[in-house]
């Protein structure tokens, strides 16, 4: 929407979400959204909404603890890319971080299932539309190439 002053305004309230690409041995961890949630059945990167007063990195460390039972040093979260897209009645801004080290073995505490996906598997999994551009960013990382 463009106001009379020419400023572009977004009518939908913003939804700020953080997520992690946890990479190990050429694979990335994805989880399946459970029944009864938005986008149920789709495969996503673990993470969630930033709560008031949280930094993005603190929010993501909290979500990874809650969802997977892993301990993460917020300083180990490396900004990778982001998505900006309409989502229902909101506008989603999804910040994707890369993570190569954590403590603990991820377990599905919220998700229906977890999978360590290589690039071929990732391309076959149904994902939320906002995540699709992430695949090309992840491809060189999963091939072990530095970016
Ligand atoms: N975690 C995550 N959320 C994603 C991805 N792609 C995508 O469109 N989303 C959307 C789905 C949801 O609308 C929103 C995340 O909200 P959520 O409900 O999972 O967050 P949360 O864990 O804080 O959940 P809750 O406490 O509100 O139940 O972002 C992704 O790759 N990872």
TrEMBL record:
A single GO molecular function term of this UniProt record: 8-oxo-7,8-dihydrodeoxyguanosine triphosphate pyrophosphatase activity
Domain Nudix hydrolase per the UniProt entry, residue ranges: 13-139
Catalytic activity: 8-oxo-GTP + H2O = 8-oxo-GMP + diphosphate + H(+); 8-oxo-dGTP + H2O = 8-oxo-dGMP + diphosphate + H(+)
EC number: 3.6.1.55
Enzyme class per UniProt: hydrolase
UniProt xrefs under InterPro entries: MutT-like, Nudix_hydrolase, NUDIX_hydrolase-like_dom_sf, NUDIX_hydrolase_CS, NUDIX_hydrolase_dom
Similarity field: Belongs to the Nudix hydrolase family.
The protein, known as: 8-oxo-dGTP diphosphatase
Organism: Sphingomonas trueperi
